[in-house]
From TrEMBL:
Catalytic activity: ATP + protein L-histidine = ADP + protein N-phospho-L-histidine
Top-level EC class as recorded in UniProt: transferase
PROSITE patterns: PAC, PAS
Start and end residues of each PAS domain: 3-82, 148-186, 393-463, 527-598, 652-724, 778-851
Species this protein is from: Mucilaginibacter ximonensis
EC assignment: 2.7.13.3
Gene3D superfamilies: 1.10.287.130, PAS domain
Protein keywords: Kinase, Phosphoprotein, Transferase
SUPFAM superfamilies documented for this protein: Homodimeric domain of signal transducing histidine kinase, PYP-like sensor domain (PAS domain)
Protein name: histidine kinase
Amino acid sequence: MLTIDKLDEIFQDFPVPALILAANKDFKILQANQAYIGTLAMPPEELYGRPLFEVFPDQHPEDPESPIKKTIQCIQKAIQLKTPQTPGTIPYRIPDENGGYNLRFWMLDYIPVEDDRGNVAYIFQLTHEIVEHQLTDKLQSATTGIPYERMFDTAQNAFFLSGRNGEVLAVNRKACTMFGYSEEELKRLRRQDLLVPDPNIEPLLAQREREGRTSGEAVAITKNGEQFPCEFSSVRFITITGEQQYCTEITDTRKWKNAEEKVRQSEENLRAIFDNTVEGFVLVDNTLKIIAFNDKAGEVILQYVGKKEVTVGSSLLEYLAPERQVAFQGIAARVIKGERIEYERPYPLPHGKIRWFIFAVNPVYENDSVIGLCISGRDITMQKLAEEEVLRREKLFRRMVENSADAILIMTAEGKVTYVSPAGEQITGYTAGETMQMNAFDTIHPDDRAKSTETMSQVFANPGLPINAAPLRLQHKNGSWRWIEATLTNFLHDPEINGIIENFRDVTKRIESEQKILLAKHEAEQSEEKYRKIFNLSPLPIWIYSLDNLRILEVNDAAIKHYGYSREEFLSMTIMDIRPPEDAAPLKELLNNIQKDRQTPPNHWRHIKKNGEVIIVEITGHSIDFYGPNARIIICRDVTETIRTGAELLRSNERFRQAARAASDAIWDWETATDTVFLGEGFSTLFGYEEAGKTVSRNWVTDKIHPDDRLKVSTRIQEVIKGTRRARWQDEYRFQKADGSYAMVCNSVVIVHDENNKPLRAIGAMKDITHQKEEEQHLRQLESVITNTTDAVLIITVGQHAPHVIYANPAFYKNNGYTTEEVKTHGFALFHGPNTDIAELAKLEKAIKNHESCQIQAVFYKKNGEPYWASLAISPVVDDKGNVKNYIAIERDITERMNYLTAIEEQNKQLREIAWVQSHMVRAPLASILGLTDLLINEIKEPTSSEALDMLKKSANDLDNVIREIVQKTASANK
């Protein structure tokens, strides 16, 4: 909710006179704007803190229907209903500068203002002063109900406006001259002060209350005591705000000599009033024929007249617009029955504007019968506009007040809280009930209590004056500390408040921001010193120059050292002085762009040292606030050598490309910035790709890696790029050739980084090691054979001394039982023994000496002394130049074979002996048998004997053939 102090600026400038009242029973004045103060003759200090009706007292306290009492009821109704209310026009006695009083008539509006909890906290009083019309537009005739204005300036008789109890509210000038009093003196009098008491007057007054009007005769008393006869006519009327008042006309009958003069004078008075009012009047009979009308009638009521002259006796309907005629006939029918009707009606004007009128149609009575109608009309456009403005202002103030974030608190001198507005809960976290159970001083931070005590001393010493307290910390319900800014006013002397009013707001964010600013300022000062040290200690040349005149404003030690100029020389130069003349134009163009773009990317320029040397520098510039907004700080890096190295690198790259064409390896160059790879000529000769010598995407290369190897290769090269592996990397994997087959490759990669260790490129060479891998596989197979064979395999080296064994496979050690160290230390001498054939050993030594292959068979000895036969074959191993470096020796245990051969030999010997026996000992008798058989065959001639001898001879021949065959086979086996 907005507090009074926040509304002050807008409230003071509000054009309508206004007050802010407290919503308590006395309606104390809290604030008045300039427009209101300007209407009074009293200073604002006499208003503030006083009850409204102490400043404007009730002039008729005994009258229960007095305007002030009705005003109080109106305000109370506004608080109860929470809606704007108006008591209408109220007369006020306002002190003037001369010590007297002026009667002022104000039309008042009372607007309730609610707080966040829906309770009415304030009342806005908007005051519209009736200046032009004064009282006259509020009077009504009992007979016609016609309001009169400016009657006091034109009437020939005395007119009194009085209240319910006879108090004089207003008079005209004629009344003052008739009775000899001033206007203010008459307003302080009552009826009994002006008329001689007469019992006949009371019935007449009763008639006025009953019938609304009365008239009669009386005796008037002047100021000097003179009495004179008079006639009076008095009407009772209800104001537009609902108040009951009386208008009394007094006629001095001393002027009239006869009844005709009296009638004429009365008619003149009425005509003066009738013709000079600002309202339009038309009197018609029951048939709506015009009886009378005044000058304003044509403008306000008879608007459809045009150029037609209004005449008495014509029908009123002739002068009304066609669309109004039927409606008015309905209204007239109701009024003829005794009903009073009042209504408002808008009329459109050119240019879209609206003109508002208020009409009243009242019955005209004669002997209690309605004999006609009185139609009055008045232009209320300005009033409508004022009402709209009041409503607009009301919405404005309501919106401002309801959205206030400030809180109001009332506490006793001891700190006991008696009231807190809803905003207090938002600030402190405590509900209103919780707050009123607390002491306001208990929640103050211990470090701020002394400051609070000092503030309260000022509050107690200055009753009624607002005291601004320095910000202090209050503890929120959640335990946090909130910075509070408050204004305290001591109203302990006021019995209605009996407390100290505190308007407070949460300024935590503001205080914290201020503290951050102070801290930032302190840090900035320290930072400035730190950056000044960095500026001076930077190894790179730095200077600051002005964009306005390009003069160098500051320079560091590195610039002085690198360029050779002294500090004084630098500060007397501009940035043009260190550049070749031909660079002036492009530099000016760059400076024009700098003024539009506050930062520039790194760029290269030529600078001239004091010794005349021209260097190439990379410049980075930034805007800086250095004793003015248009300054730039420049950081220079001498890249002369880098540029030269770059030129060499270009030439080196060309040489690299030429070498790549001639290399047998597939050389590639991956540039990380573009993610492209240059392929050397080896990609054509090794893998058959037509893309050799061209640049391809990185994906082209990675897609050629065998799917089973791709993840491993990608992961490893990323680790190298990120620095988690060494900068050089080598790996073996399968790479697809153009024909779809895969080659086993060895890829060696080197990563090139910039000065910030950011990878720039990767250069690699791929070798086709498919054949090598196949040979390695073959060797591994051979090694497996050697390792797993039962033959002993040895590698023998020959130096200046005797041959010695440098390798022996497991079978060798298994066969002879010696250890590796024993064999390597003692060599072949370990294996010789008594039955070792010296001739065979000599043949072996000769072959080694002549670098020839050789195979011997001899008896060797195991570690346990057991002899064994072995076949030992050696072959020389030559290097690339044909020199014999080692010998391969294969030893096979032939003991079993040799034993078998010995057994065969022994068997053959036995067979030879058998064959000899067969050939010499068996065949000798067999030969004799064959000879004897031949003799017998020749001698014996009998058939039977001859047949027996033939059979004997055949058997002997068969036995001879068997023996021969045995002998032949034995001879063949011995060959």
